[in-house]
Amino acid sequence: MSFQKAHYTCVMKAPWKDPGLRELLALAALAAFGCGLALAQADLLFATIFAAASAFIVVAALRRLQ
């Protein structure tokens, strides 16, 4: 009786090479930039909206990493 070894290969990609994750991080950076611009203009409503969007996108990116 002969046994053959199964050869399994698993290629682990770096998380930053995932195009979806890069897109999420770019959106988070864009939202943070919008928040900074809104704060510079002293527009607290838009600053709050952009800050919430940035936080939501960062949470989505962290969930995608898991």
Average pLDDT number: 81
Q: Span between N and C termini?
A: 43 Å
H and E string: HH
Characterize the largest beta sheet: strand count, sense, and whether it forms a barrel. none
How many individual domains? 1
Radius of gyration: 20 Å
Quaternary structure of the protein: single chain
Number of strands: 0
Structural class: mainly alpha
Unreliable residue runs:
none
Shape assignment:
rod-shaped
Strand portion: under 5%
Helical residues, percent = 55-70%
Can you describe this structure in just a few lines?
By secondary structure, the chain is mainly alpha-helical. Helices cover 67% and strands 0% of the residues.
Write a structural description:
It is a single chain. The protein has 66 residues and is an all-alpha fold. The protein has one domain. Helices cover 67% and strands 0% of the residues. It is built from 2 helices and no strands. It has helices at residues 19-40, 44-65. The chain starts with 18 loop residues before the first helix and ends with a helix.
